[in-house]
Design a protein that fits this description.
The chain has 343 residues and is mostly helical. 75% of the residues lie in helices and 3% in strands. The strands form two sheets. A two-stranded antiparallel ribbon has the order 1-4. The protein has a two-stranded antiparallel sheet with strand order 2-3.
Length: 343
């Protein structure tokens, strides 16, 4: 059985392992409350966003929360801190791997669904009234969840046990045929293309089309208003578009930046046929660890994006933080009154 890294003095561990053992607990400590707070605030419906947008953003926050719980806590932290739990029995480990891939895909493609919804809202006026509704958003979210749960079932069959103790298979080792059999190689490429190569392409395409439409519409509206020097701040329609586009670009840009390292690593791995690390100082291993660290960071940053770009979200967040403080203050005051009355 594996000896947990915490059994060794911290200074003895390789630098990359030291970084990981500090990084993932921080991600969990920040990401879980951040996403829970986001879900609560958005669900209240007081952020000035339409029900359609709110439905997507709540679903994205819930998916990010599941990624942190499954990938960061049940996989990363568990593997480094508790490598001999029942989660490492091969069938459980295989199920855990399939679950992590499913929730990651759902998190990514809900971002695409949100981006497409904003594209339709801004660029497709005739389709907007039919597509950009709360009912359609619920249908899209449900479909994305169902499809990617089904799509990731093969991950359960990719692994084999490292060893068997008392007829109990332990740990998950990728079968050698996964890298050689055409069907598995095809599945791997499809998996990588669906997450994140195709999403990155779609985000760039939809954002480019949206920007082009907004620039063209802005020129037309300035002509209609009779002034080429007109400022959009006095135009309610353009102001609403500006707020939507800031939120859209912030979420899309965050996704692309934090997934870029993962894409680069995958391409390099395929070009060099470098699938097995030679040690903890192997640049490919460090690149692999770094790409996943940045990837999982994307599940913690959306709350910051909402706070930066949405005034009403900030107000709701401040009110939420003040409320428990008021309760504590009132309790302290009551204790003081009781103490004074007793004296």
């Amino acid at each position: 059985m594996r000896v947990p890294f915490v059994a060794y003095p911290f200074s003895w561990l390789p630098p990359v392992i030291q970084a990981i053992m500090i990084y993932y607990p921080i991600i969990a400590a920040i990401g879980i409350p951040a996403n829970v707070v986001t879900i609560v605030i958005l669900s209240r419906g007081k952020c000035g966003l339409s029900r359609c947008i709110t439905r997507y953003l709540v679903a994205m926050a819930a998916a990010d929360l599941l990624v942190i719980v499954t990938d960061v806590i049940l996989v990363r932290m568990n593997d480094y801190y508790f490598p001999t739990t029942f989660l490492h029995i091969t069938p459980v480990c295989s199920f855990r791997a399939a679950l992590v891939r499913a929730v990651t895909d759902i998190s990514v493609w809900l971002t695409i669904a949100f981006t497409f919804d904003r594209f339709v809202t801004i660029c497709c006026q005739k389709l907007r009234t039919k597509y950009c509704t709360e009912k359609t958003a619920s249908l899209v979210i449900g479909t994305v969840c169902l499809l990617f749960c089904i799509k990731n079932i093969p991950w359960f069959f990719i692994y084999e046990p490292y060893y068997t103790i008392d007829n109990v298979p332990w740990l998950c080792h990728v079968k050698s045929e996964y890298y050689t059999v055409t069907a598995w190689v095809t599945f791997d490429w499809i998996n990588r293309c669906l997450t994140p190569l195709l999403p990155i392409f779609l985000i760039l395409l939809l954002n480019a089309l949206t920007v082009g439409y907004i620039l063209a519409a802005s020129r037309v509206r300035r002509r209609l208003r009779g002034s080429k020097n007109d400022v959009n701040h006095n135009d309610p329609e353009m102001e609403n578009r500006r707020k939507s586009i800031i939120l859209l670009f912030a979420i899309s840009g965050n996704f692309i930046l934090l997934w870029a390292t993962y894409v680069i690593f995958f391409v390099l791995m395929r070009i060099t046929n470098h699938y097995y690390a030679t040690g903890y100082n192997d640049p490919m291993l460090i690149g692999d660890f770094t790409s996943y660290m940045l990837l999982l960071l994307s599940c913690c940053t959306n709350t910051c994006i909402y706070a930066v770009t949405q005034t009403k979200f900030r107000d709701e967040l401040k009110n939420g933080l003040k409320y428990p403080l008021r309760i504590i203050f009132n309790l302290v005051q009551e204790r003081k009154v009781q103490s004074n009355s007793q004296h």
